[in-house]
Amino acid sequence: xxxxxxxxxxxxxxxxxxxxxxxxxxxxxxxxxxxxxxxxxxxxxxxxxxxxxxxxxxxxxxxxxxxxxxxxxxxxxxxxxxxxxxxxxxxxxxxx
Length: 96
Hints:
The protein has a single domain, classed as SH3 type barrels. The chain contains 1 helix and 6 strands. The protein is mostly beta strands and 96 residues long. β3 and β4 (55-60) form a beta hairpin.
């Protein structure tokens, strides 16, 4: 969680292992939903996916098996479609 929050604050790209699948993401917002589960809204830019789609995705942080900060890879501005007010994340820990 610490790496995710730090990456959001400085807009740094991450490599995560989610449900056994490696993904390269730009993290945008992390926090809890109404039932208290921690979620991450991120833009997947690479790696694999169950849906083979690039774009904004919601990840349950409890299912993230590994987080690796990608050194010297940052994103300059939010991707088109980013909403600061996330409909799922009701309590925000960090956001772009």
